[in-house]
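User: Let's play a game. I give you a shape written as tokens, and you guess the letters that built it. Ready? Here's round one.
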């Protein structure tokens, strides 16, 4: 029971730790390693620019799912590394998706109405990272349209929206943009600011 509680504490804190556990009158020092599940990335959009994003996420060991309403685009031939493919209309695309604190979503269909519909649904989930490809003006337009229809995103929901998506790496190509997106997702999931390691005063690994 003491060991179980120690494991629960480590899991809640999301940090590996050493614990002193008394067993049959003797105390044992045990190491409890927390191994979080892989990040689950849902890419809404099966265009050519989604391919390098899926490929990089796969290299990182993430579970990657590609969703789109175009049958010609959501194929295993185009996305061989994907853990799953979702061919669905925007209004129904989230029906069978479970979101937790290790789930990220990126909207990049290049179909404004599809992205808008998905953003509206994602705002009501617990998804901690919602990336929207495109300039800030696109997001502002989406927010204005949602507000006009009576669907104003809460401050808490806006904290989870990242647009323009990705870190400022000077990315230009689809591959570079994919790198900036995956780097930002990793930083958010790790609770880091994504600053240069040379600026750190403390040790890299605490």
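Assistant: Ready! My guess for every position:
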């Amino acid at each position: 029971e003491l060991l179980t509680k120690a494991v629960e504490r480590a899991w809640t804190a999301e940090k590996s730790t050493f614990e002193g556990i008394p067993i049959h009158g003797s105390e044992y020092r045990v190491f409890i390693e927390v191994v979080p599940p892989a990040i689950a990335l849902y890419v809404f959009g099966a265009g050519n620019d989604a391919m390098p994003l899926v490929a990089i996420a796969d290299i990182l060991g993430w579970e990657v799912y590609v969703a789109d309403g175009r049958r010609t685009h959501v194929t295993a031939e185009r996305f061989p590394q994907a853990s799953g493919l979702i061919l669905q209309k925007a209004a129904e695309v989230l029906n069978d998706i479970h979101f937790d604190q290790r789930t990220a979503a990126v909207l990049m269909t290049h179909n404004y109405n599809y992205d808008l519909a998905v953003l509206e649904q994602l705002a009501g989930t617990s998804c901690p990272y919602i990336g929207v490809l495109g300039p800030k003006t696109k997001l502002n337009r989406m927010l204005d349209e949602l507000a006009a229809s009576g669907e104003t995103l809460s401050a808490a929901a806006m904290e989870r929206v990242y647009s323009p998506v990705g870190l400022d790496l000077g990315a230009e190509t689809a591959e570079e943009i994919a790198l900036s997106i995956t780097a930002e997702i990793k930083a958010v999931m790790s609770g880091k600011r994504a600053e240069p390691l040379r600026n750190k005063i403390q040790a890299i690994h605490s």
